[in-house]
Amino acid sequence: MLHVPVETWIGNAAAVLSGAWGAVTRRAQHSGSSRTAVSTHAQRVVQAVASAQAGGISYEALWQENERLKAANEALWQAWSEAEDLSEAQQRNFAGSGCAMGFSLSQIVTLLAMVLPLGAVPSRAMVGRWVQEAAAPAGRLLMVLDLACQARVRVLCLDEICLHRAPVLMAIEPHSMAWMAGPRGPDRRGESWCEVLTRWPCLEHVSADGGQGLERGGKLAHAARGAQVEASESVAKQAMTMGLDVLHTHRERERVIQRQWKHAERQRETASQADAKVARYKRQGRDPRGGSGVAGRAWRKAERLCDQAVNAQAAVQQMAAALAWFDAKGQLSSRQPAQAQLDEASQQLHGACWSKVKRLLSDERTLCHVDRFSAHLTAAVSEPVLRDA
Description:
This protein is of the alpha/beta class. It has four domains: 1-54; 88-140; 151-244, Ribonuclease H-like superfamily/Ribonuclease H (Nucleotidyltransferase, domain 5, 2-Layer Sandwich); 246-388. It has 15 helices and five strands. It has helices spanning 6-18, 23-31, 35-54, 59-82, 88-100, 105-115, 124-150, 190-197, 212-228, 246-284, 289-323, 335-347, 355-362, 368-380, 384-388, and strands at 155-163, 166-173, 178-181, 205-208, 241-244. The protein has a five-stranded mixed β-sheet with strand order 3-2-1-4-5. The longest helix has 39 residues, at 246-284. The chain is extended, with a radius of gyration of 39 Å.
């Protein structure tokens, strides 16, 4: 069909479009084509004319674009063939930088496989050895940098995470969000935390949860600092304060309120099932009085649980407002009004499930962030009028 002249296509289309009786048969006999081929030629001629009248990109433009893309593809393949292979030193640098950025060994191998020939891709074990070799000088450099920045750290946020049951003692500087420490274990006792905290001689404040190990570690570090005050002038003379972070308090109250709502939802489903049972008894003509009493008691319990959850939700919102930096009027929070709001919210919480939250809210360290902010503002602006403005 590709060798059929254009004039034949147009003649076949004319025979079909003329509509005369026997025109297609005579045209097929004259051109040596079948009736199906004549009809096909007519359809394609009509499509070509319609496409030309519709406008848009032309065949010549498409051909030129295709030629341009082919040339660009050939240039890329030529550049790829002439590119120098990634040397082993460059691969080592790539592996070390990738590991420092958080990539795993398998991910580094996958990335190297994209730019190296199949037989030149290093194994995962080889990449691991490269990373270990790069980590040795980096570790020595980090020790020097740690010594340089230890005197600049004033506040730390402490917490614990477990990796394969081994605790990791984390220390984060809140302003820069830099991970200052992360030793793995050996345990979470106060002595281990004391060893972590004594690395920063100018530490003023520690924010952490209410864990006993963290609290004991802070006390031991404060006592150790007091013993070093006379020996070194670089040690901070002021006491190291310790406050409870708002994050753990927020997580604990959210956990309890969600549990209360789930309990109320389960009781509502139980009451609905009791109603369905009563309705089934009525359809079967059985006495529903016993089931009605069970359903009534279930609904009363569900309503009581829902009321408790609603009241607890309001108390949780009041807690969040009391722990914020500013009150509803936009004024800076202070300890007395904030503590009064926390006490009022605690009175609305009933049940043993709220005992930990109440203990955290009554702890004076919970509002330590408000005291520190007020103290810094007072030190920055001594005039009360200007400070209030």
